[in-house]
Write a structure and sequence with these properties.
single chain; globular
């Protein structure tokens, strides 16, 4: 069933709420650390996606699911980096720092589109990139000079928006190629999400060995793999069929707010002044850019309706 606009918005809010539980859940683990946390989360995610996609599409789906060629494996590599870097960064630095660093993904995607696909960027987006870059630079600088700073965690977290931007740019390229050459089919890009989970689990298992997670930890990590990853991945695909990209990006910023609040209330991890200052610059730039983009889209639509 195709969602209505209002239901798609509610579904996207639900998606961001599910994404945002990673930080607070991670802070309640007993024994699992770093690479083991990522291994179990990715493994549970892969298992849930196998079940979910089979239920949605039937077992015949798997006969042709992995025929996407180089694009499928390139996207899978991006998902692998996103899964792995996100969870490892969560064990190295604060939830606020990870989420704020990740939130620059829409602006990095716009920049990559300009460099690799020659898409023109409006002045507001260049301004947002500059302001968000200043915010991330502020966090890097403060952590680099602070005693016991979490600079390593921020560097690891930076891999998430870079990989995400690469992935979305690849998807834009495939759709652009299909528009120019209709015979060039756009491959199904849901299997790379599963492959990324499998690769992430497989690559980090040797680094996680010997496994030390308790039964308590396994329950929490299963929650992350299923509720924080697999279900939102399936939901957001449906949402993206209804909401424009600008609106999805704008609503996606709720993950930062929800995630920081949950870590603060549920784990006592208050965001420090560095995260608050840098975050204000990044989130402010994103809100202004995406809000103006949404306004321009709606104004353009009203203009077309009036002219017709």
């Amino acid at each position: 069933m195709r969602l209505s606009h209002s239901r798609a918005v509610l579904a996207m809010v639900l998606v961001t709420a599910m994404w945002s539980i990673a930080g607070v859940v991670t802070r309640h683990l007993e024994a699992a650390r770093s690479f083991e946390v990522n291994f179990w989360r990715s493994a549970f995610n892969a298992a849930a996606l196998l079940v979910g996609l089979s239920a949605l599409h039937g077992l015949r789906y798997w006969k042709t699911a992995f025929q996407g060629g180089w694009a499928l494996w390139a996207s899978a590599a991006c998902w692998t980096v996103m899964y792995t870097n996100f969870m490892v960064a969560m064990t190295l630095t604060t939830v606020a720092t990870v989420l704020i660093t990740m939130s620059i993904a829409p602006l990095v995607t716009a920049l990559f589109s300009r460099v690799f696909l020659r898409h023109r960027l409006p002045g507001r987006t260049w301004a947002a990139i500059a302001v968000a870059g200043a915010g991330i630079g502020w966090m890097f600088g403060q952590q680099a000079f602070a005693a016991g700073g979490s600079l390593t965690g921020t560097f690891v977290a930076l891999g998430v928006p870079l990989a995400g931007a690469s992935n979305w740019t690849l998807l834009q390229y495939l759709h652009q190629r299909h528009a120019a050459q209709p015979q060039a089919q756009v491959p199904d890009m849901m299997p790379p999400v599963l492959l990324g989970a499998l690769l992430s689990a497989g690559l980090t298992l040797p680094l996680a060995w010997p496994l030390t997670a308790s039964a308590h930890d396994l329950g929490l990590l299963a929650l992350l793999g299923v509720v924080q990853l697999a279900i939102p991945c399936l939901l957001v695909i449906q949402v993206a069929k209804v909401l424009p990209a600008a609106e999805v990006s704008l609503l996606g910023l709720l993950e930062v707010i929800f995630g920081v609040l949950l870590a603060w209330v549920g784990a006592g991890e208050a965001p420090g002044p560095t995260a608050l200052t840098g975050g204000a610059l990044v989130i402010g730039a994103l809100l202004a850019n995406e809000g103006l983009a949404l306004h321009e889209r709606r104004s353009g639509g009203r203009g077309l309706d009036a002219s017709s």
